[in-house]
Amino acid sequence: MKTLTVALPGREYDILIQRGLLSQAGERTRALLPNARKLAVVTDTNVHPLYYDRVKAGLRSAGFQVGLFVIPAGEKSKDSAHLVELWEYLMRFGLTRTDAVAALGGGVVGDLAGFAAATILRGVPFIQIPTTLLSQVDSSVGGKVAVDLEAGKNLAGAFYQPKLVLMDPDTLDTLDGDTFAGGMAEVVKYGCIWDARFFDLLAARPAREALTTDIEHILYTCCDIKRKVVMEDELDTGLRMILNFGHTLGHAYELAGHYTQWTHGQAVAAGMCAAARLGVKLGVTPPDLPGRISDVCAALGLPTSIPCSMEDYAAAIGLDKKSAGADITLILLDKMGRAVPHKMPRGDLLALLEETL
Ligand code: GLY
């Protein structure tokens, strides 16, 4: 078993990583919550048939009365309507403040269940059981929970740390190729921003089979980096922004593809490649880095560039007539394994994008 502790004062929790861990969800949760009677599992229509029975059996034998709330798979379920339905369900289920909510699934399930747990009865204990690569290396750690609004993604949310994150790498075996590759974009990001040796390890063996053999080490390394960043800057006022490497331009590509053509991971991959090229142009990034990052992304089956209009770039960087002079902070690399914030006027960034990409 690999264990990491997110040591936040008063809100410390463990991240457990082990093949087969799903069947231990009951005893692990019971050890943390000795007085809880009920546990509501939130999951989606993809994950429910695959893993719910195993988790439920463990929870029942640990003495929990288990509730179940299933949402349709997909980002559309992460909205205020499903949040209200979930709140109402939790009250019908008879949840009290000593009981708990568990998220079994990917980022959508984790964000929705986490925000419901943060707000129902002014907060009940929350367990993350992430089953996708993206949620294991990113969204299940660090306490960002949210739902989407018409005005944009993740606009109603909270920082609400889980009591436990329980990761079973075996759940990744059922991911399709694109979903696995999308998660790998975030994995590559950790190498770029924090750990050059880790980047080299991924670059040397980018085939899924090899990555799967090393998956516990990969999950551990990513969660260790995320944990360190979150312990330093839980509320996202400083260091945590380095996790956005590739995401500002990635957002432009998500917009360009109307959030349907490209997955988040594909957009982030192209965003990292573009940020590396911009970094070279700005004299911050060594000239060999864009090629190294593009090579890994291409080997993983991820796009290294995505067509995007200047209008979509402008929207993604929050540029309108009034904001042209206002600064934006772009995350760049000044060497492999080290991210640096780079402040520049939004208007200048758009001009540079037009010239470079
Ligand atoms: N996913 C970025 C963060 O947790 O801050």
Describe the structure.
- The chain is α/β, with parallel strands linked by helices and 357 residues long.
- 46% of the residues lie in helices and 20% in strands.
- It is built from 14 helices and 11 strands.
- The chain has helices at 25-32, 48-61, 80-93, 107-119, 133-139, 177-194, 196-204, 208-213, 215-232, 247-256, 264-281, 289-299, 310-316, 346-356, and strands at 2-6, 13-17, 38-44, 65-71, 100-105, 126-130, 144-149, 152-159, 164-167, 327-335, 338-345.
- The strands form 3 sheets. A 7-stranded mixed beta sheet has the order 1-2-9-6-5-3-4, with helices on both faces.
- The longest helix has 18 residues, at 177-194.
- It is globular.
- Glycine binds next to loops.
Summarize the structure.
The chain has 357 residues and is an alpha/beta fold. It contains 14 helices and eleven strands. It has a seven-stranded mixed β-sheet, sandwiched between helices. The protein has a two-stranded antiparallel ribbon with strand order 7-8. Strands 10-11 form a two-stranded antiparallel ribbon.
Compressed to H and E, one letter per element, the order equals: EEHEHEHEHEHEEEHHHHHHHHEEH
Discrete helix count: 14
Structure ligands: glycine
**Strand order in the sheet with the most strands:** 1-2-9-6-5-3-4
Gross geometry: globular
Sheet with most strands: 7 strands, mixed
Q: Percent of residues in beta strands?
A: 15-25%
Question: What's the helical proportion of residues?
Answer: 40-55%
Structural class: alpha/beta
Poorly predicted tracts of residues = none
Mean of residue pLDDT values: 97
Distance between the termini: 45 Å
Number of beta strands: 11
Radius of gyration: 20 Å
